[in-house]
Every structure is written in structure tokens, then in C-alpha cells.
Amino acid sequence: MKSLGLDVGTKTIGVAVSDAFGWTAQGVETIRWKKGDEESAIKRIEHFIAEYDVSTIVVGLPKNMNGTVGERGEACLEFADQLKERTGLEVTMWDERLSTVAAERMLVSADVSRKKRKNVIDKMAAVMILQGYLDRQQSAK
Questions:
Q1: What is the pLDDT of residues 8-20, one digit of tens each?
Q2: Which domains are delineated in the chain?
Q3: Per the record, GO CC terms (predicted)?
Q4: At 38, is the secondary structure helix, strand, or coil?
Q5: Taking a C-beta distance cutoff of 8 angstroms, is the pair 19, 3 a contact?
Q6: N or C, where is the chain less crowded by C-beta within 10 Å?
């Protein structure tokens, strides 16, 4: 079964999916959404759950550098609760501190233009969140 990784932002949600073995994460899409319209975002996520036969959802949890959960983190926790209630799937929170920064650095080092980076940064952050989760699962075996 596959895992779905999500980088939930205020305007976009980066989406990544694992391979069937749980070894690698690939970027899928960046969902554009508006606060208060969780319904459309969740419907799109449900589409990916069905399309990729997903059994686990991993949601990035943006913690403060001191480890506390701030306003953005609370919003991600609420979104994760909605996903769990709606899908019935296991939803795991994953510490995503600096995942967007790391994704940005990777894209800059690959000489991706600023305009193109803007279009894929959230999807790449979702890949990094999911890959971190997958790596931890593999090392636990």
C-alpha cells in the first residue's frame, strides 16, 4: 500500500505519493485552495487516495524552531483531523521544519528558475516530508 504526503499551506497543498514498496516519494501536484474551502481540497486529496490506492496520509507539521506548535501548525493539525474523519485512513503528522527551505535550496542548486520554483516548491516540500517519513519507516524495520 502507498502513502500520501501533504505539505499544507494557506493557499496551496503540495502532494506526493510513495511507490508500492514505501521506498521513494514522487511529487504529484500542487493543489490551490482558499482558507474556508477545505471541501474542495479534501475532494482532490480523496481523488489521489483512490487513484494511488493510499493507506496512510502523512501531513507536514510546521513546528517553531524551539519545537512548539504555532498557529500554522494548529491549522495543519485541524486539517489532518478533517482528513482522518473524512477518509478513515491513518493520518500521521511529520515534523516539517525547514522542508520548504531544503526544497528551495535543492531547486536553486538544480538551476531551476524562480518562476518555475514557485510552481513546484510545495510539491517538492511534500516529497521531502514523505521521504523523511519513508526513510524512518525503513530504518525501523
A1: 999 999 999 999 9
A2: 2-140 (3.30.420.140)
A3: cytosol
A4: helix
A5: no
A6: C
